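Hello again, I could really use a second opinion on something today. I've been staring at a protein lately and its backbone has me curious. Can you walk me through what the tokens say about the fold? Take your time with it, there's no hurry, and the full record follows here:
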Amino acid sequence: MFEVDYIGAGAPPIETEFGWLIIYHGVQEAITGKIYHAKAALLQLDKPEIEISRLPYPLFSPTKQWEIKGEVNNVVFPTGYSLFGDDLYIYYGAADKHIAVAKMSLKELLLELRKQP
């Protein structure tokens, strides 16, 4: 449902012991228009064209007023990351008007991805 319209680019791939972690955007078509969500998937290291797993739900979605209203409404669009130990910072555009960052645990994200088919 969060990728029905299309999926697209995001941050550069992150090499992990479990595969390439990709953070990208998925677009949902809603009655009120398109909603851009941040998504995550894991690809094989030696054959990145093969998907190992993908989260069935968004990493994060537009929920704050400045993510919902802007030049283009309802947009969180991941574009980059920084990794400090286990802390993964995902930089993203919000409503095509702001720049923001979301922080999460890389270990927890990989654990959750490895639970998915």
User: Anything to note?
Assistant: The beta strands are 6-8, 14-16, 19-30, 33-43, 51-54, 76-84, 87-94, 98-105. The two ends are 17 Å apart (CA to CA). The helical segments are 65-68, 106-115.
